[in-house]
Every structure is written in structure tokens, then in C-alpha cells.
Amino acid sequence: MKSKNTKEVLEEMGDELLEQVKESIGGQSNFGLITLFGPILMETIREPVNIILKSNLDPDSNFHCITMLICSQGGELPAIMALTDVMIGSKIPIHTVGIGMVASGGLMVLMAGDKGNRTITPNTQVMSHQWSGGSFGKKHELVASRKEQDILTNIMLSFYKKHSKIKSKKKIESVLLPASDVWLSSKEALDLGLCDKVKTLNNKTVIDFTRKSI
Questions:
Q1: Model confidence at 152, in pLDDT bands (50, 70, 90)?
Q2: Which of 12, 28, 147, 162 lies 20 to 30 angstroms, CA to CA, from 175?
Q3: Distance CA 173, CA 107 (A)
Q4: Are 79 and 117 in contact (CB under 8 A)?
Q5: Which of 2, 78, 63 lies closest to 30, judged by CA?
Q6: Tens digits of per-residue pLDDT, 154-204?
């Protein structure tokens, strides 16, 4: 029997959870729920971005919020920043819910949610670290690459400063973006302001997360 890879398992989890949510709210399919499971790449952010933009542009939309369920180990920084920019710019608040794992860029997407409405479950694994990458080429290409690296570092520091309780870039570098990965419990993530609530996910909370305004 062929074993399933992580992406396949996460996709099945997403489909199953989506069906459970539809059933719990009377079979409605027109509700503000986005599932972001697996790597965050240019191809995987297309649907979440489209949902957010269309919901904002539709004059008949009556969502009081859009809920994004996140289980992700991270991905490509340009895709992550594109998605978080759209989330932050949305006039409809984006409520984020971390389940399973929110690591690296997955954590950044969680943090970009509406302040006061960023939730993780008690068993969610949380991890923060520096961006990673590499460069090669001639000397002038490496010099240009170094500038890009400095820009990316400043983008991440500014993001963490805005979306966490830590307001010192020096402390952010030492506590959340040091040389090694930083694994956090749900309580530690809450204390650092990376989320606003630690809450068990059940039928009632799922309905609350996805209910439209009347």
C-alpha cells in the first residue's frame, strides 16, 4: 500500500473539516472560511487571496469576518508576505485559527489576523525562526544579493514588531529570530503576543468562527 505524504494527509483533513463545518451550519457553502494547510507557496495562496478580495469587493457580501484555519510549516517568504498584505488590507476582519502546526511563515500568517481574534488550539505546535535562503554568482551579484537579504531581515523584524508584544527589534532577534529554531508552547505564544487566545476547537467554536452576520 502506498503511504500518503504530509500534503495529501493535510488536504484530506481540510476537506473533511470543511464538510463537518458545512454540516454544522445547515449545509451552507457560502460562509467565510478559508483552510490554509501545507506549504505556503505562490500557487497555494491564490485561492485564499481570491476569497478575501472577492468578499471585500462584493457589494452583497455580509460577512462580519472571514476565518482562516491554518496548519502550515511555512513556505516562500514572497508568497507569505503577499498573503499577509492582503489579509491586513482587508476591510472584513480576518480571524485566524492555528491548528496542528503553525511554524515559520505559517506563524506569520496567524499573526497577521485581526488583533483580538488570533486563536491557537492548546496542542498546536508553534515555531519561529529567521528566514533562510542562499545565493551564488559573481561578486557584484553577491553584493546585490546581500542588499536583498538585509531588506528581507528588516521586513521580518518590522512584521514581528507590529504583530507581537515585543517592540524592540533587538529583543525580537534574541527571543523569536535567533540563529536556531524557537519552539513555543501555546501559552508561551500567547504571552509573547503571537496569538490572542488559546481555545479548544469543537463544534460550537467552529460554528462561532464561521457564522455570518445577520
A1: confident
A2: 147
A3: 16
A4: no
A5: 63
A6: 899 999 999 999 999 999 999 999 989 999 999 999 999 999 999 987 655
Has 140 been annotated as catalytic? no
CATH number of 6-210: 3.90.226.10
pLDDT for residue 214 is more than 80: no
3-state helix, strand, coil in the chain (%, to 5): 45, 15, 35
Q: Is 129 among the catalytic positions?
A: yes
Nearest Cα to Cα of residue 33 among 90, 97, 80: 97
How far is the C-alpha of 191 from the C-alpha of 148, rounded, in Å? 32
Residue in the block written with cell 488583533: 115
pLDDT for the residue numbered 61: 79
User: Which residue out of 55, 72, 129, 186 is catalytically annotated?
Assistant: 129
Whole-number pLDDT of residue 19: 54
| List 55, 72, 104, 164, catalytic entry | 104
If one counts every other C-beta atom within 10 angstroms of the C-beta of residue 58, the result is 10
At 84 the pLDDT is 97
The full set of domain ranges for the chain reads 6-210
